[in-house]
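In the previous lecture we treated proteins in isolation. Real proteins rarely work alone, and many bind small molecules. This record shows how such a complex is specified: first the sequence, then the SMILES for NAP.
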Amino acid sequence: MPVALITGASKGLGRALTYALAERGWTLVVDARGRDELRSAARGLANVTAIAGDVTDPDHRSKLAQAAAPRGGDQRGRLDLLVNNASTLGVSPLPQLADYPLGDLRTVFETNVIAPLALIQLLAEPLTEAGGTIVNVSSDAAVEAYPGWGGYGSAKAALDQLTAVLGAEEPRLRCYAFDPGDMRTEMHQLAFPGEDISDRPEPNTVVPALLRLLDTRPPSGRYRAADLAASEVAR
Ligand SMILES: NC(=O)c1ccc[n+]([C@@H]2O[C@H](COP(=O)([O-])OP(=O)(O)OC[C@H]3O[C@@H](n4cnc5c(N)ncnc54)[C@H](OP(=O)(O)O)[C@@H]3O)[C@@H](O)[C@H]2O)c1
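The predicted 3D structure, ligand included, written as tokens:
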């Protein structure tokens, strides 16, 4: 059965994707910082290993990599899929760039850019051996100039570019930046504090588009959930 590592799996999109892949029989390694919420998300799912920790922590990343693709001695684990989904919005309410606290901006880049690349570096071999797939979860804020979204958006833009270059450098892999669109999640509520976000779609409604990406394996690149969903309707 295929093996995947999904970061940020205790809530939102990561949790919805974990359920969908577990239902398909995948073997999964998942993480999030909050131990209890992660444990409860993984409860009852077969072949899911939950490891609590922060993706910005190198020791935690090593544990994830070793669990997902054990190496050493005669072990040469393969990895079919890495989903860099864990992410931080940064400061809430969203500040203008002129006022963005630089320490907080560093945390945004550590979480949303450096940690995903670090996991890719750790897992490049087992992913390449499997002819695997990397999904870096992006955002429309990477490509649109929304006031207040400069910190998060510039980090997602960096993640997009990193994904594009990886795709060009390593043709044996599929490297996708996946833009899910708005979803009714904790992160989205943080971006709109005090506002009613109940009109935003639930994260599980985005999962079919992501599964379509995984099933059809188009060339490496940037894909929007809305376009993938529309192409499914058009088929
Ligand atoms: N929601 C939207 O409208 C929207 C729109 C565009 C793109 N996105 C992107 O979609 C992805 C999923 O977002 P979401 O809305 O589903 O978020 P969410 O519901 O807030 O869930 C985020 C998940 O990531 C975990 N996480 C956060 N920081 C982490 C860290 N440093 N280390 C390990 N785990 C961490 C969280 O658990 P802990 O807090 O316990 O660590 C949680 O499991 C993100 O990449 C986000 O940027 C979301």
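Summary for your notes: DSSP finds eight helices and nine strands in the chain. The pocket of NAP is lined by residues 7-14, 31-34, 37, 54-56, 85-88, 111, 137, 139, 180, 182-183, 185-188, 203 (CB under 6 Å).
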